[in-house]
Specification:
174 residues; alpha+beta; two-stranded antiparallel ribbon; 6 strands; 52% helix; disordered N terminus
Length: 174
């Protein structure tokens, strides 16, 4: 649920982005998420400029304001703790953490380190990355292991589906 309002304490009223009184007005956004039992409603005051940017981004991504704020805040907090990790939208449209300054998704580097029996130095050399960068990826993985394992499983399933599709196409062509 998203509520935009302005006014003094206890005097908020719903306003749409077009009815904001001025660019310097402060808006309040209250977030409530039903999809997770661990979510809690919170109120934040955002400038009219920030709200306008939020509305534009929500419209361009087809996300609700609540979902967009939740995603962006979660990513910002993770980035604060893991400064070498940034989030990007992959080719499939999914958001995923990646090593800053590279095209390497965290899941890809974690898979490589696993395949090398945990030898971070070997993967850093093969991928031509600083050892500290690969260690940063593994530190992120340590904090969000279940999430990254799910991403690896998803990517493995997509790879298998695409391979099966390619095999079918090759069978038709020969």
């Amino acid at each position: 649920t998203v509520f935009f309002g302005y006014g003094g304490f206890g005097r908020s009223r719903a306003v749409g982005p077009a009815t904001v009184p001025s660019a310097s007005a402060t808006l309040c956004i209250t977030l409530s998420y039903m999809e997770s039992s661990s979510s809690a409603p919170r109120s934040f005051r955002l400038s009219a400029t920030t709200c306008s940017m939020l509305d534009q981004l929500a419209e361009s991504t087809s996300e609700s304001r609540s979902s967009l704020v939740e995603r962006m805040l979660a990513e910002a907090l993770r980035t604060e703790h893991h400064p070498l990790i940034r989030f990007r939208t992959g080719g499939s449209g999914r958001r995923e953490p990646a090593l800053i300054g590279t095209r390497h998704a965290v899941r890809q580097l974690v898979s490589q380190v696993r395949a090398a029996d945990g030898d971070v130095d070997e993967i850093a050399e093969i991928m031509e990355l600083p050892v500290a960068s690969v260690r940063a990826v593994m530190a992120y993985y340590a904090d969000f292991r279940d999430e990254i394992d799910a991403e690896i499983a998803w990517a493995t399933a997509v790879e298998a589906e695409e391979r099966a599709r390619w095999d079918r196409e090759q069978a038709v062509l020969t």
